[in-house]
């Protein structure tokens, strides 16, 4: 007999940033995709599925350098020593696919895609290392109307998710307008440009005064840490602040009129204004009103986007499990990116698209109390008493399923009380009881669990509740399906 100690048992734990989802949580993400896909298809977009892995060099800006392939992405070496990485998003695979198949594709190429993506970065509220996205993109059109189409379609997607009626608003800006204000402010060089963009991106958090400091010499925060600024002079700071001070809650045409004297004299700014004017006209043709606004402060991913950019946040109050306010960020965003396919071909191919962060959106809806899947009903549960009557239980469940009702036969070996608790934990709307007496009499007892829960909440005395048996009734066996359907209605 061996005296060696037993091997240590591994601790059952999930890696940080990776979540297990069951029941309502898994259904919430599935229903988001099921709501968005028909919208994309109505607008003429076709599905495209690509593999989870891409060669690491195809991920472009997401790979810091060839010597650190695991920074930002999850990568491994293939048997031919090439680095492969789990896809960081759904756009890089699209660019690779378009470049690889451009000669045979219809142009423009309009596709939608959904699925998991992976990022090797620090998790946070609504920010995971593995999460789902659902995208739609047009590759091969430089028309501003293509941008407007993506925006209008994203709004229709939000409406399909039950977020119409002003619960979410899409804010639109343009990299060209930002380039215009950078020209007007005398910004010079890539390093200074990035510092200015990062300062603008902090407007919501730091306000005008904080941004002004970051545009100038720098800012000392409450902890004593100093952030070096962009080094702009007073005229340059005023130009950027004037750009950011244009009200974003007005009519789109009025916003453009207010921006014209600030950036209209610069080549980039004038081009950006023309693009947004055409986007405005197209949105009006689509019937899109105040749910899409022009907001100069949107600087989403401007190192990546080349023209129009947009994003949307849920306007409802969002709180974590402890009731504390929490901000999840953008639930849908996108814009024009005309340089991505050129990484492969050397030829610029215009493209524009939108991405719904499915996992973040599900978490945001849950935090806002708008998670419809959380109230999703479980299956009707058929209670089991004896092995001899198993055929009757299976037949009852099969009959309900044939009528489109989710139903299951209890497959454990517990007694009646435990089975009822099981049905309750499953969120079952009803339990079907076919005891020996019911079978002999050609009857079935149905317990309306929703009605029972409501009645139980109003009855203080437990014995009174037991005697009343709220929500429980008996019908003839051939009325089983009709009775259950009535409960579900």
Automatic annotation (TrEMBL):
Question: Known Pfam families for this protein?
Answer: HGTP_anticodon, tRNA-synt_His
* Record field: compositional bias (Basic and acidic residues): 10-24
Q: What is the name of this protein?
A: Histidine--tRNA ligase
Task: Please give the InterPro entries that the UniProt record associates with this protein.
Answer: aa-tRNA-synth_II, aa-tRNA-synth_II/BPL/LPL, Anticodon-bd, Anticodon-bd_dom_sf, His-tRNA-ligase, HisRS-like_core, HisRS/HisZ
Enzyme type, top EC level: ligase
NCBIfam families given in the database record: hisS
- Catalytic activities: tRNA(His) + L-histidine + ATP = L-histidyl-tRNA(His) + AMP + diphosphate + H(+)
- State the Gene Ontology terms under molecular function: histidine-tRNA ligase activity
